[in-house]
Design brief:
Oligomer: homodimer
CATH topology of chain A: Four Helix Bundle (Hemerythrin (Met), subunit A)
Shape of chain A: globular
Radius of gyration of chain A: 17 Å
Number of strands of chain A: 3
Strand content of chain A: under 5%
Strand order of the largest sheet of chain A: 1-2
CATH superfamily of chain A: dinb family like domain
Largest sheet of chain A: 2 strands, antiparallel
């Protein structure tokens, strides 16, 4: 089963994080064409009491490195959450990809028995299986999608293919 | 491995579809409190050239029943895509839950070898593994999140817990 865990939280996450890098590049090109600073997107929100664009990327990447680290029972690198430029959030995606790329299927051998805890939920835990399926996966895609939706709403020319990234087509 | 496939596309999808029903109920309560027709949400879009709210729910549910049917190599029920009331889109969530609830882990025994085709991609196919991880999962959560974001941006009082649904906490 660890092969499928690896396929999801390493292979697919890398594909979707790379897809988000392409989306960031398209947002930059859009800003250049329309003669505004691309960094203007960083503090935008879909609603006044939602997280801004930068935070959506921070949480998506925290989810990716956190899921991989927790299910392999290792420590995740800590990122400072101080990104203030488009280059810095692009680089955060790169650092996340670099960290999770190192993991192989066998690193997740005991994934389903891990007892996952969070500092902000004292006294509570989730087992590895429920963490992966009920928390990690929906949460990762939630924040990537919200980042996408925010740029899409603000005129960046992106579509579903940009979100999904490369699809491994074969002949029918 | 079919246990994990079942856990994701049956157990988790049901949890997230039920969570979306709760979100629809909160949107209805919000509309009632603010004295407008909840159906007003149905044609709203995040951008003029994006799909409207109803279509986001239609695609999310198509993804759910489609993924389960394709990976179990059975036919999915066809829904007419004619929902015009809040009750009808709520009922579409119910019908999707009813269909996917019938599947057990052993129904997905040959999931990774399925050759998945789509009428709109003639001559092309994806194997079951790449379909699940690179298409079905990201796409399902993309449309659910976009539906959530749309209501959230328009004043419905919902948060991440509403999106995730019930978490199976254990003692730390």
């Amino acid at each position: 089963m660890e092969n499928l865990v690896h396929e999801i939280i390493v292979t697919s996450y890398i594909r979707n994080l790379k897809a988000m890098k392409t989306i960031l590049a398209k947002a930059k090109a859009h800003a250049d064409t329309n003669k505004f600073e691309v960094n203007r997107f960083m503090d935008m929100k879909l609603a006044p009491d939602m997280f801004n664009f930068t935070k959506q990327i921070q949480i998506a990447t925290d989810n990716a490195k956190g899921a991989v680290a927790r299910l392999a029972a290792v420590e995740a690198p800590v990122f400072a959450d101080t990104e203030s430029t488009w280059e810095e959030i692009t680089s955060r995606l790169d650092q996340t990809i670099a960290f999770i790329s190192k993991f192989k299927a066998e690193d997740f051998k005991n994934w389903s028995e891990q007892k996952i805890t969070f500092p902000w939920y004292p006294g509570k835990a989730i087992n590895g299986k429920d963490y992966l399926t009920g928390f990690a996966i929906p949460n990762f895609y939630f924040h990537l999608t919200t980042a996408y939706d925010l740029l899409r709403q603000n005129g960046v020319q992106i579509g579903k293919q940009d979100f999904l990234g490369e699809i491994n087509w074969i002949n029918a």
